[in-house]
């Protein structure tokens, strides 16, 4: 690793090495953030589906008419 730094510093490309390190760190942070956001989105979707299922079971048990979804035209 020291040889690599010596090669870059001898050629005056230390700024390029720093830029590469910054780009790799930024790309890694973006990848991690997108992965976590996707997982959170999936968990929220699962929660909403379970809540909808729970509401349907309660409506059937109590003999209520099914709730209409305002987003659908049925």
Q: In summary, what is this structure?
A:
With 74 residues, the protein is an all-alpha fold. Helices cover 80% and strands 0% of the residues.
Question: Could you give the topology of this structure?
Answer:
Blueprint: H1 2-11, H2 14-62
Describe the structure.
This protein has one domain. Helices cover 80% and strands 0% of the residues. The chain contains two helices and no strands. It is rod-shaped, with a radius of gyration of 27 Å. 0% of the residues are buried. The mean pLDDT is 85.
Q: Name the structural class.
A: mainly alpha
Number of domains: 1
Task: Return the average pLDDT rounded to an integer.
Answer: 85
Low-confidence stretches: none
Oligomer: single chain
Q: What proportion strand?
A: under 5%
* Gyration radius, in Å: 27 Å
Q: Find the count of extended strands (DSSP E, 2+ residues).
A: 0
Spell out the key features of this protein.
single chain; 74 residues; mainly alpha; 2 helices; 80% helix
């Amino acid at each position: 690793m020291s040889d690599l730094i010596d090669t870059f510093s001898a050629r005056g490309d230390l700024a390029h090495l720093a830029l590469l390190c910054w780009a790799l760190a930024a790309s890694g942070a973006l990848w991690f953030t997108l992965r976590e956001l996707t997982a959170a989105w999936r968990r929220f979707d699962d929660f909403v589906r379970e809540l909808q299922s729970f509401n349907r079971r309660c409506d059937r048990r109590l003999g209520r008419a099914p709730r209409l979804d305002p987003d659908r035209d049925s």
